[in-house]
């Protein structure tokens, strides 16, 4: 049977990738349709937008946020803030299904009582990429980041402590969750250019949602 409508569900597996990094393959597969619906609701209020880097480039990835704090970038720099700069209103509330998944996934990786106050939603269309960077705008680096991939697969680049360290390549598929904590928390990482494709739930795009304790 090869039709998309009857695509087999992947079996969830737990894989230790590196100190502090745990790959929960297919962990969110059962929730994928509901998560995508929740993304649609959040972004009806806080639309996807391509932000400017401090250096003046326009990011190829379109972003939005929900939760108390949202990650933004513009000519003034990278930061978290309570208001959506487009509307000057607070970011949409974090959907209950987001919070529940983030808490459950963090606990499965050994990080108990994870209570994210920020959720960044990234949308990749073919050609979009994210260059190697560190996530260091959060206050407490002892808290992990939980990432959930939905839709088209992507090649994730998992680097080292220095920008020049040769990254490992990992193919992240829809429903995969990765928990990044401990010594993995400050490693460089990025996403290779998204290839064209068609996914039953998202069409021609990939979403990545990351849960963070930012404040
Ligand atoms: C490893 N997003 O939004 S998620 C980001 O697929 C970001 O959209 C990528 O990097 C994406 O900042 C990757 C996986 C990820 C997220 C945070 C990390 C990996 C990480 C923090 C530290 C180490
Ligand atoms: Fe990142």
From TrEMBL:
<keyword id="KW-0408">Iron</keyword>
<dbReference type="InterPro" id="IPR037151">
    <property type="entry name" value="AlkB-like_sf"/>
</dbReference>
<dbReference type="GO" id="GO:0051213">
    <property type="term" value="F:dioxygenase activity"/>
</dbReference>
<protein>
    <submittedName>
        <fullName>Alpha-ketoglutarate-dependent dioxygenase</fullName>
    </submittedName>
</protein>
<keyword id="KW-0560">Oxidoreductase</keyword>
<feature type="domain" description="Fe2OG dioxygenase">
    <location>
        <begin position="115"/>
        <end position="215"/>
    </location>
</feature>
<dbReference type="InterPro" id="IPR004574">
    <property type="entry name" value="Alkb"/>
</dbReference>
<dbReference type="InterPro" id="IPR027450">
    <property type="entry name" value="AlkB-like"/>
</dbReference>
<dbReference type="InterPro" id="IPR005123">
    <property type="entry name" value="Oxoglu/Fe-dep_dioxygenase_dom"/>
</dbReference>
<keyword id="KW-0479">Metal-binding</keyword>
<dbReference type="Pfam" id="PF13532">
    <property type="entry name" value="2OG-FeII_Oxy_2"/>
</dbReference>
<keyword id="KW-0223">Dioxygenase</keyword>
């Amino acid at each position: 049977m090869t039709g998309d409508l009857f695509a087999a569900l992947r079996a969830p597996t737990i894989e230790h990738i590196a100190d502090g990094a745990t790959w929960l393959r297919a962990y969110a597969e059962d929730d994928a349709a509901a998560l995508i619906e929740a993304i649609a609701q959040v972004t009806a209020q806080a639309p996807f937008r391509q932000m400017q880097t401090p250096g003046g480039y326009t990011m190829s990835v379109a972003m939005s946020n929900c939760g108390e704090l949202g990650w933004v970038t513009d000519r003034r720099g990278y930061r978290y803030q309570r208001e959506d700069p487009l509307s000057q209103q607070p970011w949409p509330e974090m959907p209950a299904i987001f919070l529940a998944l983030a808490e459950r996934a963090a606990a499965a990786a050994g990080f108990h009582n994870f209570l994210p106050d920020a959720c960044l939603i990234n949308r990749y269309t073919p050609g979009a990429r994210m260059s190697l960077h560190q996530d260091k705008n959060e206050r407490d680096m002892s808290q992990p980041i939980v990432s959930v991939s939905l839709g088209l697969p992507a090649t994730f680049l998992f680097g080292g402590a220095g920008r020049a360290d040769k990254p490992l390549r990992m193919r992240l598929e829809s429903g995969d969750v990765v928990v990044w904590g401990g010594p993995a928390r400050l490693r460089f990482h990025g996403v290779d250019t998204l290839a064209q494709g068609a996914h039953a739930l998202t069409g021609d795009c990939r979403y990545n949602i990351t849960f963070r304790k930012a404040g």
